[in-house]
Specification:
7 strands, binds coenzyme A, alpha/beta, globular, seven-stranded mixed beta sheet, 2-enoyl-CoA Hydratase, Chain A, domain 1
Amino acid sequence: MKLSFIELDARARAFALLDGGTGGELCGPFDRIESPWLEPQGVVPQSDDGVVVVRGKLDGRSAVVIGIEQAFQGGGIGEVSGVKIATALSLAARDSRAGVPTAAVLLLETGGVRLQEANLGLATVAEVCSALLELRALQPVVGVIAGMLGCFGGMSIAAGLCTELIMTREGRLGLDGPQVIESEAGVAEFDASDHTMIWSIDGGTQRTRTGLADVLVADDVAAIRSAVIEAVWTTLPAASPPRCDGATASPCSANSARPFSSKPHRATSWPEPPRPPTPVPVSSPSPTPASPTRRPSRGACFDRDQSGRSTRLRSERLETPSLA
Ligand code: COA
C-alpha cells in the first residue's frame, strides 16, 4: 500500500529512509540546543532548532540523514540548525576518511536563510555548502525535495551541489521564493498565491525536465527510499566494493580512502548557442565574424578551495562516536 512521505514530519522521514532499527538521532531535542536569537524576537524556539540528524544504515551502508522540518519557521536555516547540518556532513567526511564510508541524504524543505537570524543564517548556509563539497569528494550526498514547502534561498544552492537530486511532483525548487519575487517585483510579475503557476515553474516535474533535478519520484515512502538507495549506489566511488546482498561480506566497512570524482555537476555549462549563419564573402575577403560568446558556467563559482573553513558553533553533542 502507498504511504505518503510528504505527510511525515522531518524526523519520521529520516527514520523511514534508513534500514529498520538502525537509526539513532544525534543532537536530538533532549539535548536542548536551541537558537538563542528567536525568543528575544517573540518567536518560541524549538529544542532541535528544526533540524533532525539521524545516523544509521541505508541498504546496509553507513549513512546520515539530515532532515529540515518545514513546520518550524518555514524550514529557515539559522545559526544552530545550519551548524547541525554542516557538522553532520563534516563528521560523515571524517568517518569516510577514517575507513567508514558514510553517505549523506539531505531532506530539503526550507525557505532558505532564517529571516530572524539574517547574517548568522547566511554564514551557516555557506558552511553547509562548504561541508557538502568536502563530503561530496568522498561519498554521495543525495538531496530529496519531497514537498510541500520546497527548497528556496541559499539552500537551493546546497540542493544544486548534491551528487543527485530527487524530487516529487509536489516538491518545489527555486533561488528566490515566490513571496520574495512578489514583494520585489510586484504581484503582476509573480503572484505568490497562484499555486498552479508556481508549481508550473518551480515544481518537481518542471525541474526534472530542465535538468535541475535528476529523478522524479512519486510521493511514496518505498519509492523515495528506493530512489535514494539507487542514487547512492550509482554515484559511489568507482573503487567501492560491490553492494551488499545479504550473503556478500561487509562491503560497508571497506575503506574508500581514494577520493572519487563525482559525475559532472548538473547545469555546469550552458548549451552552445546556435551559430549565426556565416556571411558569404562577396568580393573582398571580410574579417571573420566574432565567435558567439559562451555564457559563463553557473557551477564555476563553487569550485573553490575549501580549506580553512570555520565552524563557529560546533556542537559537542554531534561529536558522538561513529554508530557504524
Ligand atoms: N525564514 C523564516 N521564516 C520563513 C522563511 C524563512 N526564510 N520562509 C518561510 N518562512 C515562514 C513564513 O513566514 C510562514 O510563517 P507563518 O506560518 O508564521 O506565517 C511559514 O514559514 C510558511 O511560509 P508560507 O509563505 O506561508 O508558506 P508557502 O508554502 O506559501 O511558501 C515559501 C513557502 C518558502 C516558498 C515562501 O515562504 C517563500 O517564498 N519564502 C522566501 C524564500 C526565499 O526566497 N528565501 C530567501 C532567503 S535566503
